[in-house]
């Protein structure tokens, strides 16, 4: 059996790619199964309820000896289910800058800098002259819209736009669908803020410091640093301890307004992130708003330079 999967606790892009690519592999006559490990976020839950069709199975534990794997939306062995042996991975699709494909010695890789991995999977359908089912089309379209913040993030390119337009034809969605999707992922409150932040947390070690960027991409982002300020402080502190992080920042992107809010809880993080963001105005416990969408992956290389 070929298992198709993304990273632990996948986002909508990872889920959509797993579902759709296993469908394509099946259409091409090979048995394949979409699986995931970990937990799912609000966005995935929304599309799952919208379609009432979720052809992907939660897996935990060992796989049979002859199992093979295809990874989508991930190319880092540290981010996948530890039961998956890197040498059993036969194919990888990812759209990240930092990749670790050399660790997967038997994998054919497609790593392309597009806004969403779903774009790469849609291009596979086109290449094989296949059309996704309505269900797979809804997942793929939703993944591109979500990953590119409705085609607004700086890494969105023409391939994402073309892929989304092509797949939307098979998805037959209501005209307010994108608003529904963004509203669903914005239902953050005191009960789920910590989970949402830990689910979209990127940890990277730069110059011996473990750095965490906790991200939310939702509507009305200012609410998180005002109404939910105490919960935000607590969540960042809890994550810092749990993950043994040296520097931590909250990065909130407002998907409607197109701006970004940063928030820190300690002096050292403020100082380093201020340098990376080229601002004088980042102070602990005070939100800093920047009037454009800033992506996490554009901050990481700047941190490297800021930490000399
Ligand atoms: Mn992705």
Automatic annotation (TrEMBL):
Cofactors (names): Mn(2+)
Gene Ontology annotations for the cellular component aspect, listed alphabetically: cytoplasm
Pfam families (UniProt xref): DHH (PF01368), DHHA2 (PF02833)
Gene3D superfamilies according to UniProt: DHHA2 domain, inorganic pyrophosphatase (n-terminal core)
One Gene Ontology molecular-function label: pyrophosphatase activity
Superkingdom of origin: Bacteria
Residues of the DHHA2 domain: 178-307
Keyword field: Hydrolase, Manganese, Metal-binding
SUPFAM superfamilies: DHH phosphoesterases
UniProt xrefs under PANTHER family: BIFUNCTIONAL OLIGORIBONUCLEASE AND PAP PHOSPHATASE NRNA (PTHR47618), CYCLIC-DI-AMP PHOSPHODIESTERASE GDPP (PTHR47618:SF2)
The protein's name: DHHA2 domain-containing protein
Organism: Candidatus Brennerbacteria bacterium RIFOXYD1_FULL_41_16
Taxonomic lineage: Bacteria, Candidatus Brenneribacteriota
């Amino acid at each position: 059996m070929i298992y198709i999967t993304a990273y632990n606790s996948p986002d909508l892009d990872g889920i959509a790619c797993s579902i759709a690519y296993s469908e394509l592999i099946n259409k091409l006559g090979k048995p394949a199964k979409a699986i995931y490990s970990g937990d799912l976020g609000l966005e995935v839950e929304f599309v799952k309820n919208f379609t009432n069709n979720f052809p992907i199975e939660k897996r935990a534990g060992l796989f049979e000896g002859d199992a093979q794997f295809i990874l989508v939306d991930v190319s880092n062995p540290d981010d996948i289910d530890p039961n998956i042996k890197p040498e059993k991975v036969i194919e990888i699709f990812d759209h990240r800058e930092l990749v670790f494909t050399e660790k997967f010695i038997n994998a054919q890789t497609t790593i392309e800098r597009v806004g969403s991995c779903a774009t790469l999977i849609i291009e596979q359908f086109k290449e094989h002259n296949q059309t996704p089912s309505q269900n797979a089309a809804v997942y793929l379209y939703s993944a591109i819209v979500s990953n590119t913040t409705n085609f607004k993030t700086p890494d969105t390119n023409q391939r994402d736009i073309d892929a989304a337009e092509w797949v939307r034809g098979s998805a037959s969605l209501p005209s307010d669908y994108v608003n529904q999707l963004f509203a669903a992922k914005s239902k953050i409150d005191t009960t789920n803020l910590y989970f949402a932040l830990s689910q979209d947390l990127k940890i990277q070690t730069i110059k011996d410091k473990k750095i965490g960027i906790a991200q939310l991409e939702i509507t009305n982002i200012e609410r998180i640093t005002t109404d939910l300020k105490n919960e935000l402080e607590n969540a960042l502190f809890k994550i810092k301890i749990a993950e043994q992080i040296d520097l931590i920042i909250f990065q909130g992107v407002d998907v409607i307004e197109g701006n970004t809010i940063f928030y820190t809880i300690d002096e050292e993080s403020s100082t380093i992130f201020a340098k990376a963001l080229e601002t004088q105005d980042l102070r602990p416990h005070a939100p800093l708003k920047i009037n454009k969408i800033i992506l996490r992956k554009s901050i990481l290389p700047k941190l490297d330079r800021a930490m000399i």
